[in-house]
Amino acid sequence: MFIDDLAIQDTAIPQPLRPPGQQVFTRRAERLRTLAQGHAMADFLHCCAAIAQAQQACHDSLAEQAVNSTACLRDILARLHQALGQALGDGSHSAILCLLAMDDDALQALALSLRAGTAAANPALQAGLPLLGAALQVQAVISARQRDLGRLQHTESDHCPVCHAPPVASLLRRGDSGHAVRYACCSQCASEWHVTRVKCLGCGNTRQLQYRSLAHRDAEPAAANHKQPHQHRAVQEAECCDSCHGELKIVSTLLDPLAEPFADDLASLMLDMLAGEAGYGRIGVNPYFIAGDS
Ligand SMILES: [Zn+2]
Ligand SMILES: [Zn+2]
User: Fold this and answer.
1) Which ligand is nearest to the CA of 205?
2) Which residues of the chain have pLDDT under 70?
3) 248 C-alpha to center of ligand 1: Å?
């Protein structure tokens, strides 16, 4: 039995905000390669790993610079494009050239909608959007790491307290007292902010929740258990809300210390499909996977 299965109140105050680490993209690339082994979507996961590795190199060379301008975003996109070269398909290549040719206002407007997960479908640009999302992440991680985050007032929110982007997923970590604590992970800057263990981030509902996993796909979904809130069953689970019909992944670093929200979310897209068939829509935004992407 895990200590987290015991219904003991965690009296230690969890760290409210965890800023992104210096090697955030390398860790993600390594996790993607691990998850790709024997995976039905291995090629896709390897492609995302190559993007994450290029993001780390770009981050490292620009880490000390001011990167918030649209010109900088275009520069980061061009660097990623150059680094990945032939790894990108022809469709991505021509879409990225279109993105690089956009004027500042149009590129900025597209970037804002992509950050919010609301970019409208545009066939000419679609295949380039994951790389624009990757460039936005480099920009967001560098900006977050340059800020003094200790000054931020933390309130539990459904959006990142650092850069106001939506979460990619939530994750369980072992807190100082040994019990699991839950964080939401930002889809852009990868900062993690503390959130209630059993609660829908879409609507705040804490009661009508159920947890689905691929390991137990044929079983009845587990209901939320407030007496044992830290009980967990699989490394990757979908928290499904019967109030707003939203669904957000929970990734457990207690069950697998190398679990990483972006990578584990991508490797469990099948779980979103099954949740979708049951009537739940994704809340998490993952910039490596744009809906409608081919
Ligand atoms: Zn953020
Ligand atoms: Zn909800």
Assistant:
1) 2
2) 1-13, 154, 216-219, 226-232, 291-294
3) 17
